[in-house]
Design a protein that fits this description.
Layout: H1 3-19, H2 24-35, E1 39-46, E2 51-58, H3 62-70, H4 79-83, E3 91-92, H5 93-96, H6 99-102, H7 106-115, E4 117-127, E5 131-140, H8 148-170, E6 191-195, E7 201-204, H9 206-214, E8 218-221, E9 224-227, H10 230-243, H11 247-250, E10 257-260, E11 266-273, H12 280-285, E12 290-296, H13 304-312, H14 316-328, H15 331-338, H16 342-356, H17 361-372
Antiparallel strand pairs: 1-2, 1-5, 3-4, 4-5, 6-7, 6-12, 8-9, 10-11, 11-12
């Protein structure tokens, strides 16, 4: 099967998973085979509390999956750097920590190496002030380290994972049979429209009709959706027309399109193709090529660690050591927690003292406490 055919089949399973979460495992299995790797996972991490979980995965040993989240997530030197990654851009181990330093960590020696794993790439799908949701690909020693080809292929699928995951989030990841898709729309808070290739409304839920009636971000003319923003209107018209050509054709069009209401309220729109896979039955029943989701945008507030890193120009590993100093204390404890050598901890501490203009661990603790205290000034350095 050629790359284009593999990609088309993969994208179809990704969008089917937006309606039926059980399909995520199939989608992830296709993903690891398409990109080239031992395993793939949809997961989340809390960069502050050092905890997380895997929503769905394929190719991961259940024992090692549980072991990572129970124990080794706290020792993962990549977590902090991954948290600051650009959404959608693949980040490999060497992008966060020198590889020769990584292979000295307990995470590698005790968790990755016994499985034959040598590298991983992660791409953020969504993030909040404290946590990240991401797609991860794990490479076995037979696959080699993450290379340019793996990154290229990962970039091809990540936008579709993001769209499907965000749409799944809108419908609360409840299993919805495609044949009765439209019948369930009225129970969803987001505005949803089933549209044809010309943007004409074939069906809308109550929330969608309310959005049309308010005419703050979009309205209808002779049954066709019209977006108040001319640029958004052109983009969505192109997206609906393209959706009739299948999943792969839609690409990143109609993905997280920002919309602003007259009162300044921000909304976001996502398009789910309905011309392939299990979704095709829903589209055919209503002569629709796509489902449009419109909902209020969430406020993206930087996390305290992210603010600290930017304020002092810290590298991901320096920030990791700083947070560990606050959480567990001395050099031996930090080294044990992060699974790195004490000399490495001391090196990073020296850099932290220089960048923060301090000389004691107690001073570092005060700085971090200032950023996490909601009653403190916006800039504790002032």
């Amino acid at each position: 099967m050629h790359e284009a055919e593999k990609l088309s089949a993969l994208i179809g399973s990704i969008y089917d998973a937006a309606l039926d979460p059980a399909v995520w495992i199939e989608a992830l299995s296709r993903t690891k085979d398409f990109i080239g790797g031992q395993a793939a996972s949809l997961a989340w991490k809390d960069a502050v509390a050092n905890r997380g979980n895997s929503y769905y995965d394929a190719g991961i040993d259940p024992h090692y999956r549980q072991l990572y989240f129970d124990k080794y997530i706290k020792m993962d030197p990549c977590t902090t750097g991954q948290f600051f990654a650009e959404i959608g851009e693949p980040v490999a181990t060497a992008d966060v920590i020198a590889y020769d330093e990584f292979v000295k960590t307990r995470l590698y020696k005790e968790w990755a190496q016994p499985q034959g794993l040598v590298d991983a790439a992660l791409a953020l799908l969504d993030k909040s002030a404290t946590s990240i949701a991401f797609l991860a690909l794990f490479r076995h020693e037979r696959d080699g380290l993450i290379d340019d080809e793996a990154r290229r292929r990962m970039r091809l699928v990540v936008p579709h994972f993001r769209r499907a995951a965000l749409i799944g989030k809108v419908i609360d990841l409840k299993k919805t049979e495609a044949a009765s898709f439209a019948d369930t729309l009225d129970s969803i808070n987001a505005g949803i429209f089933l549209v044809d290739a010309c943007g004409r409304i074939a069906h809308s839920n109550a929330a969608g009709q309310a959005i049309v009636d308010a005419a703050d971000v979009l309205h209808a003319e002779r049954g066709r959706l019209i977006f108040n923003d001319p640029q958004a209107d052109r983009l969505m018209a192109e997206t609906f027309a393209t959706a009739s050509n299948g999943d792969a054709a839609i690409g990143v069009k109609g993905f997280a399109v920002p919309l602003e209401a007259r009162d300044g309220t921000r909304h976001v729109a996502h398009v789910l193709p309905l011309t392939s896979g299990a979704r095709q039955r829903a589209g055919t029943s209503y002569a629709a090529v796509a489902a449009l989701f419109v909902h209020k945008a969430t406020l993206d507030i930087p996390s305290p660690p992210e603010v600290i890193a930017k304020a002092f120009g810290l590298t991901p590993m320096e920030l990791r050591v700083l947070l560990a100093v606050v959480e567990v204390g001395g050099v031996p404890e930090v080294a044990e927690t992060l699974g790195i050598a004490e000399t490495t901890v001391k090196t990073h501490l020296g850099r932290l003292y220089h960048k923060t203009d301090t000389g004691r661990q107690a001073d570092l603790v005060k700085i971090v406490a200032g950023y996490f205290n909601p009653l403190s000034a916006a800039n504790p350095r002032a």
